[in-house]
């Protein structure tokens, strides 16, 4: 079974088909897309952080004893960001470390607090089970056009394949 990382959670929330394509290593994220999703923001500020925690392949900033923090460009994917951070809180809890989370959005200069409640943990476990079933599925989830598609690294793959299918 594939181990689940923060990116799996992110893709699951954005598009289950994207999650499946990523897990099969079909294509890869473009630099452009990584910038959009704020990944590079963290990498560029890496050297400035004093205390960090490595959780799966992510490096999380420890703000103080109680909080871990992620820094993102904008809050347009806030729901997705929150689930990703909840997943990191969940992984920490598995290691016996209980924290709360903060997401700092640099563009809007706002900070959102995230808490892994019992209910959130239940929902997260359901998501993890669903992610596992997508990852072990032989076929990609059906294509569902959405506004995010135009920023997705798999856009050509999804839509050229569809056009080909339509043409046959
Ligand atoms: S292009 Fe759209 S449907 Fe295809 S993987 Fe990306 S988000 Fe999903």
TrEMBL record:
<keyword id="KW-0378">Hydrolase</keyword>
<feature type="domain" description="DUF83">
    <location>
        <begin position="6"/>
        <end position="160"/>
    </location>
</feature>
<dbReference type="InterPro" id="IPR011604">
    <property type="entry name" value="PDDEXK-like_dom_sf"/>
</dbReference>
<dbReference type="GO" id="GO:0004527">
    <property type="term" value="F:exonuclease activity"/>
</dbReference>
<protein>
    <recommendedName>
        <fullName>CRISPR-associated exonuclease Cas4</fullName>
        <ecNumber>3.1.12.1</ecNumber>
    </recommendedName>
</protein>
<comment type="function">
    <text>CRISPR (clustered regularly interspaced short palindromic repeat) is an adaptive immune system that provides protection against mobile genetic elements (viruses, transposable elements and conjugative plasmids). CRISPR clusters contain sequences complementary to antecedent mobile elements and target invading nucleic acids. CRISPR clusters are transcribed and processed into CRISPR RNA (crRNA).</text>
</comment>
<keyword id="KW-0464">Manganese</keyword>
<keyword id="KW-0540">Nuclease</keyword>
<keyword id="KW-0051">Antiviral defense</keyword>
<dbReference type="GO" id="GO:0051536">
    <property type="term" value="F:iron-sulfur cluster binding"/>
</dbReference>
<dbReference type="InterPro" id="IPR013343">
    <property type="entry name" value="CRISPR-assoc_prot_Cas4"/>
</dbReference>
<keyword id="KW-0411">Iron-sulfur</keyword>
<keyword id="KW-0408">Iron</keyword>
<dbReference type="GO" id="GO:0051607">
    <property type="term" value="P:defense response to virus"/>
</dbReference>
<comment type="similarity">
    <text>Belongs to the CRISPR-associated exonuclease Cas4 family.</text>
</comment>
<dbReference type="GO" id="GO:0046872">
    <property type="term" value="F:metal ion binding"/>
</dbReference>
<dbReference type="InterPro" id="IPR022765">
    <property type="entry name" value="Dna2/Cas4_DUF83"/>
</dbReference>
<dbReference type="Pfam" id="PF01930">
    <property type="entry name" value="Cas_Cas4"/>
</dbReference>
<keyword id="KW-0269">Exonuclease</keyword>
<keyword id="KW-0479">Metal-binding</keyword>
